[in-house]
Design brief:
Number of helices: 2
Order of helices and strands: EHEEEEHEEEE
Radius of gyration: 16 Å
Number of domains: 2
CATH topology of the largest domain: 2,3-Dihydroxybiphenyl 1,2-Dioxygenase, domain 1
Shape: globular
CATH superfamily of the largest domain: 2,3-Dihydroxybiphenyl 1,2-Dioxygenase, domain 1
CATH class of the largest domain: Alpha Beta
Helix content: 10-25%
Number of strands: 9
Length: 148
């Protein structure tokens, strides 16, 4: 029987190599390999989480993400969710790095999880998700609105 154990990595299409690398370095990712036969940069963080930057994107639709920013709902992967150990820490990193929060912090109910959504420079959506014991300590926390 087939046994899928985990997601190995996520490929993220980007336009500008330097801009994308700098953005993901903000969250602890470091270049491990730049593939010499393709436009791929493999980055990992200290926990071994791997992302592959696919540097062959083109600008279109006035900078909109076709899966997230237009009214037609095309199929595809809409975001990556990265588990973090501290929502307050990620909020602090985002503020110090001048990275705009596009939604959040939000809770999904009584499951103890809080999420913060951002966009990378190419409008790809990233969700930072963590467990929170004391939701009242998260400034601006709201219930998730799927229409926001």
């Amino acid at each position: 029987m087939l046994s899928i154990m985990k997601i190995d990595h996520v490929g993220i299409r980007v336009i500008d190599r330097a801009r994308a690398v700098k953005f993901y370095e903000t969250f602890g990712f470091k270049i491990e390999v730049e593939v010499d036969f393709d436009s791929v940069i493999i980055m990992k963080n200290e926990s071994g989480v791997e992302i592959n930057l696919i540097v062959n994107g083109i600008e279109y639709d006035d900078g909109k993400n076709v899966l997230m920013d237009i009214s037609s709902k095309y199929t595809g992967f809409t975001h990556i969710a990265l588990q973090v150990d501290s929502i307050p820490v990620i909020l602090n990193v985002l503020e110090k790095s001048n990275i705009e929060i596009t939604q959040g912090p939000v809770t999904f109910g009584k499951d103890g999880h809080v999420s913060v959504f951002v966009r990378d420079p190419d409008r790809n959506t990233i969700e930072f998700r963590g467990r929170v014991e004391k939701e009242d300590e998260i400034e601006g926390l709201q219930f998730y609105d799927p229409k926001a």
